[in-house]
Amino acid sequence: MSYKKMSFISSIFLVIFLCVGVLWAESISNQIDDVMMNQLKSVFAGADSIKRYAIELPESDGDVFIQEIFQVFIEGEENGYIFKILSPGYRGDIVVLVAFSSKTNQIVGIQILEQSETPSLGDLITKPEFLIQFLKKSMNDQFELGGDIEAVSGATISSNAVAKACQKAAHFLLTIQAETETDNN
Description:
With 185 residues, the protein is α+β, with helices and mostly antiparallel strands. The chain has 2 domains: 1-31; 34-184, no CATH class. It has 4 helices and 5 strands. β4 and β5 (107-114) form a beta hairpin. The longest helix is centred in the C-terminal third of the chain and has 29 residues, at 156-184. The protein starts with a helix and ends with a helix.
């Protein structure tokens, strides 16, 4: 076999190998690991399937930013979104999962994934007694301490971090809705 033929065949195999590698890497990056899937399903009861939402994430307008957005489906129909949001607390970043129903435009689940707040004080943001007040809040609510959110006593910064995470998710959903309505008119 001539050098040109061998070089041509090698080039074709290299291109095929690279294309397969890129497709494989893309499919792996879109998969959600089992631990994360369990956490996502725990904040959105009844979810049949959850997929990463393929949209450009908004720029951070401060210290609070959306790390990931997931679309939730029940019986094949889109039912809501789960946001994974990083918000600065007193002793470090707090990672919050916030689930909004697109049917009711309300929070249907919330969970603190990571936090390093002061034990028996700031870490009380992980307790149901604090988190329950966010459930059924509308994306039109303010999510402000002293307003519609009651802070954990002595843990204002930690409490505010969770409220700001909810604010960020609600604001994003309101922006998407406004853009969709503008596009439809």
